[in-house]
Amino acid sequence: NPHLEKMKEDILYHFALGTGTHDFPALFGDVKFVCVGGSPSRMKAFIAYIAEELGLGGPGCDYPNICVGTDRYAMYKVGPVLSVSHGMGIPSISIMLHELIKLLHHAKCSNITIIRIGTSGGIGLEPGSVVITRQSVDATFKPQFEQVILGKTVIRSTNLDEELAKELMQCSQEISQFNTVIGNTMCTLDFYEGQGRLDGAICLYNEEEKLRYLQEAYDSGVRNIEMESSVFAAMCSLSGVKGK
């Protein structure tokens, strides 16, 4: 964003961080991997696991929340790994990604990989399976993210890094701990009607219609459903960041 260069100070409001109050290169300059997920507690548990795996921490170690000045998001860091919560749904993760990408820019980071991890609803898979997203699709199975900007509809691509998908699949085969597949991820605008559930406050379709829709999704290559992948893919692609 060329407008950033004209700003005396860039305040990342929802992170409670700013270029005028924090030394971004000193704090984040060594970051190479960013893992994001919905829940703050899960992302804290994740950074504790990563710390132990990297030999940078162990049982009983505490990992302070870098965004302690706000209750919007939580952020934890161990070595070259940053763990950030993003809340639920496209609007929440979009706000987080804008500030995260600016943080990485101000910190002068390079060769960054961002991976979104989280739960999702599977289609045609055993519970507990892992889906590595080939591309994110909308609720009509199109690989695109649609957003209204200045009153105009803008459509952006949701393709993700293919080589990274292959690398992650190779890792899963070496670990052999989870059933892992590469497939498309459908991103919806809500948890209930948008995903064909029958137990929301409103439901104007029947089970037969639901199953027919899920079969169409499966036939199109969709293997799981969630609510953040489309804007994640679009923003990573536009920013030139390797994402999955």
UniProtKB/TrEMBL annotation:
Occurrences of domain Nucleoside phosphorylase (ranges): 32-242
GO biological process: one example: uridine catabolic process
Metabolic or biological pathway, per its Swiss-Prot or TrEMBL entry: Pyrimidine metabolism; UMP biosynthesis via salvage pathway; uracil from uridine (phosphorylase route): step 1/1
Enzyme type, top EC level: transferase
SUPFAM superfamilies: Purine and uridine phosphorylases (SSF53167)
EC number: 2.4.2.3
Cited NCBIfam families: euk_UDPppase (TIGR01719)
The name this protein goes by in its record: Uridine phosphorylase
Lineage start: Eukaryota, Metazoa, Chordata, Craniata, Vertebrata
